[in-house]
Amino acid sequence: MVIRMTEERKLLVGFDLCNDFTQISCYSKKSFEPESICYTDDETKYMIPTVLGVRKDTKEWLFGEDAIGKGKAGQAIVIDQLITRIIRKEDFYVMDVKIPPEAILEKFFRKCLSLLKRYYPNEMVAKLVVTIPQLDITLINMIYKAMEALSLEKDRVSIQSHTQSAVQFAMSQSRDLWMNDVGIFDFEEEGLHFYQIKINRKHVPMAITVEEKDLSETLSFDLLEDLDDKESLSYIFENLAKSVLYKQLVTTLYMTGKGFEGNWADEVFKHLCVGRRVFKGQNLYTKGACYYARTLAGEGKTENFVYLTEEMVRSSLSIVLYRDAKESEYTLVEAGTLWYEANCEVSLIPDEKDEIVIRTKNFLNYEIHEHEISLAGLEKRPPKMTRLDLRLEFSDPYTCSVVVKDRGFGDYYPSTNQILEQTITLAY
């Protein structure tokens, strides 16, 4: 039975969860590309409103356009702004009943993922990557709880930001599209943003970094909706694009976001095509997440990169050990690890040492720092008769808390439960 279930877990899914719309893509073993999962039989309907609803008569849960339609008809209670409310830690009430945020998310995920059955009725999810606009630890925890309620444990689920998904998408394309830097213009309700994906080929493996420029003060979504003169709008956008691309070796551009819907910017795209390749679409992030699901599943060829987006730890952390009278290192955290996934724990037996040395090495500039954690405050025992638990916990990509706990040594020396704490700030 276990073998059969494992064989059925074939689906590699990208899930773009936003406050307004949600998109799903699934990796096709025929085209070898992510393909959008449509909300209806209409292949253009892949934008699912991030909305839930409850019918007043049957108490049935609804989602997407169905929930909105029944709500407008007065037949259902509509629950919207799901992501914003979860991040703000607001409560959800339906018919005076309080519903936990993870339960709200679980119902929305369940409804959306049921669409996969229309395409793949006999297959299960092997890897699911949820991409969200920005990493928020409250939202991340709620997503994991919701997935657990759907029997999707952490070994099958990963969460990444839009920036990470954009990098995954760009670097999964043909090599000629990322021979130089790659640019992404994202025009959503928050306004226009530009992301420049930079590839440092001097490093082995190559380092991928992203620089963001917030252009929303000049080109906001409100301006898009209020300005009737589309020629003025395209003029503003073209000047902004030329300013951020000036003297930059960006030869591929991706345009995404509902702000680019319609044809108001098409002439600008044509101008930007001179010496560059320009692509426009609304499913960049979900497909990037789907590519990452493929990577997690160990499928497809992967280039030798280290991704150092803003959510990643840019330094490796190791502990200095002595083995056979020689100094050696044991890596605790690799550079390029998501900060909220970088926590680790190891057990140590110190040998006549009054300190533990944590060594940090910056991946980009190779700068090395050593951080000594004094053990002088712990109970004194004979050599090799103390066991310590060493735990690393990150609160952001730059700040690591080191916790050392005395575990004693079996029946010979009971644990004192003494705890030492020290904060390491990673230099950038």
Overall description:
There is one protein chain. The protein has 428 residues and is of the alpha+beta class. Helices cover 24% and strands 37% of the residues. It contains eleven helices and 27 strands. Strands 1, 2, 3, 4, 10 and 11 form a six-stranded mixed β-sheet that branches. β5 and β6 (61-63) form a beta hairpin. The chain is globular and about 80 Å long. Mean pLDDT is 90; it is low at 1-7.
Through-space gap between termini: 50 Å
* Largest pleated sheet: 6 strands, mixed
Q: Quickly count the helices.
A: 11
Shape, principal axes of CA atoms: globular
State which percent range the strand residues make up.
Answer: 35-45%
Keywords:
428 residues, alpha+beta, 27 strands, globular, disordered N terminus
Provide a brief overview of the structure.
This protein has 428 residues and is of the alpha+beta class.
Write the layout of secondary structure elements.
Layout (H helix, E strand, L loop, with lengths): L1 H7 E9 L3 E7 L6 E3 L11 E2 L2 E4 L5 E3 H9 L3 E4 L2 H6 L4 E3 L2 E3 L1 H13 L2 H4 L4 E9 L4 H13 L7 E5 H10 L9 E8 L2 E10 L5 E9 L6 H6 L3 H16 L4 E7 L9 H7 L4 E4 L3 H13 L8 E3 L4 E2 L1 E9 L2 E8 L3 E2 L5 E5 L6 E8 L5 E7 L13 E9 L2 E8 L12 E7 L3
